[in-house]
Amino acid sequence: MKEYDPKQIEKKWQKEWEQSGLYTTPNKIEGKENEYVLVEFAYPSGNLHVGHWYAFAVPDIYARYRRMLGKNVLYPMGFDAFGLPAENAAIKNNVNPSEWTFSNIDYMRKQLRSMGASFDWSREVITASPEYYRWTQYLFLKFFEKGLAYQSETPVNWCPGCKTVLANEQVIAGECERCGSKVLKRNMLQWNLRITDYADRLIDDLTSLDWPKHIKDSQINWIGRSEGAEIDFQLTTNNLTPLSSGGARQLTTIKVFTTRPDTIFGATFLAVAPEVAIKLFDNDFGIKSATERENKEKLGVDTGYKAINPANGEEIPIWVVNYVSADYGTGAIMCVPADDERDREFAEKYKLPVLEGYKKAGFEDYGEKVTKYKLRDWVVSRQRYWGCPIPIIHCKDCGAVPVPEKDLPVILPEVLDYLPGNDGKSPLSKVEEWVNTKCPKCGGNALRETDTLDTFVDSSWYFLRYCDPTNDKEFASKEMLQNWMPVNFYSGGAEHTTMHLLYSRFFHKVLFDINLVNESEPYRRRMNRGLIMGTDNQKMSKSRGNVVDPDDYVSRLGADTVRTYLAFIGPYNEVGSYPWNPDAAVGVRRFLERVWKLSEKISEEEEASESTIDPIIKKVSDDISSMKMNTAVSALMILVNSFSEKNSISRKDYETILLLLAPFAPHITEELWHALGHETSIHLATWPTFDESKIIKEIATYAVQVNSKVRATLDLALTADEDEVKAAALALPEVGKWLSGQSPSQIIVVKGRVVNIVI
RNA sequence: GCUGGAGUGGUGAAAUGGUAUACACGCAGCACUCAAAAUGCUGUGGCUGCAAAGCCGUGUGGGUUCAAGUCCCACCUCCAGCACCA
Asked: Is the ipTM of this complex over 0.90?
């Protein structure tokens, strides 16, 4: 038999599969159930790295397995093609972002094919193509129609590096998620999506989902719902003495938010955020709010104003402090230094009274029960070129007017100057012939919105488009959505827990409410995968120089080896991080070589060995279902090793091995399958079944313990009853030695496993 | 600080409360070879011992149990997310 040459056979079969349309997924197959296996689509960064393989090839194993179980499995791929990183990279390389993105996509598509994944390329979506973003704009206008997209002048996160606004979710520890620049607060007129309206449902509906607890917890934590009360504090009359700036406001009360209204008797002062102080008193008293982490020292100034504690009638001072956030609750709190660590620290520093041992109040005795959230509305305006144009026209007389549906898509104009400006305006604002337009309502002169949408808007609905990718009447027909949604299994990166995953759930709920989709939750089962580290066990990055190029390994070891190695490296259902170890990958190649060589031992006379193979079928099936690919591979290795020791293997057993291995190593198994005379693809074959009765062993090896320490082992028929097992164990010389004449007080028998003789 | 998760050989890691370290890498020795690579075989937690065997071992300290990596309590360390959120 010829040698195993992955280079040759992998190319051959990839071409063959493509030509025969093996992975083109029909919308319906008679007698088969549809199943939707989704991976987060690719960002067209330029080239594929080992992390992409890990993200796509391991779920591909799952998709292939489900297909062999008789499901009609949709496993699509696309490109998240709009966005800052592509634009930044294009600027750096002095290429137009469009050119950069689309040439990257062409290259990556080729690389992705070398992986031997079962993607249905006929359903590919590219968010930067007008056929796609037409519908992004359409959906944005639906939000607008429902009052869920609105403009507001608010302090926003401004990234001076990317020269654009960021959503809260994109600010990590005060820094830009993309470029690491320190994020500044800036007041700007921005488009927002009203995700806060959905805060409760985004928490409550998690209950029904088959998601790992840690993902649910993170989302709940991020939304940050807390129950509390709003309490009005009356100001004393001396507050009405005129302010220097021209008189007091009609100010009579300050509303505070607290989660502990029961502690109101202990409140000895009020604290307000500087921004709130400006609103109330026209003065921030020189205090700046401490939003940055490093500014931890608590600062404050007594405003001189006083309020009455409604519980005990005491007059208490009002302070402006840097540790109260203006954008949470009411921006004002009642301070109970006896009960709250921060208030105590502040009270001690400024010698404010601390009232220990005060009386407790009822929850709603002095205020009204309210629920507050940490979640903010989603700022979707981006002052950048490479994004989906916001389909709004600003008219002096009519205000913000939606572009009529028939005029969609609003095509992103080709420009020469796509560099972001320092003025906070999108490069599109310089394209006068594009900006100047007519108002669709009154026909007067009007201006187009020049901001583009956050990339996360594009990716909030891409999985719906896969269901009906070429529809030019709707973003997806209800029939096709019914056909595929909800996603049965969604695999992706942990970094999207409070971004993409939250945004797309919100998006889907809105579409559900306006009856455009059939379900309120898009993803039934979700799994966050781990990370592949460099050989130095550090996160892969260009600056560290530890980025692993999979192409090298594919040409040296073969795609099948790389795929199987990535499956073998550790459990996929845990968010671990695994170093890329080329030596260990060699071990997987050796395993595939053994499978190849084993075909020489096929004997038509040999009988199938269910007792050996059936437990492995069960093990591999169970492990793939729960994404424990590592132990599935290990079980296959054990199986192949045991057959390699023998002189011959039956044809049926060998075929079973190939079938079990097919999802992991699709090329070598296809080659060997055909070498056995099969004319159709192994990937159309049915997953092996097993006989439960063959899984139960006939002979059991008992661990024989004396006082819980293993002293011997004992092979007995599983049918042996407890007394027989006891007698056999007691007859062992090793046991006699430890008993040394004493009689046991207790003998415990665990059928098929353990005998414990307790003296 | 809060929320979640994890600590097992030289390494990646296995283990329904029931023989801890499967599988793989690495390492050592042997075979094949002029040699090397490749391949195959053997060994590989620590300590004592020529051996037979024995003792100790899953971050630390307690507990439950005939039996604990696994369950309970306390602590330590690491990872992820959140963080002056009242």
From this structure: yes
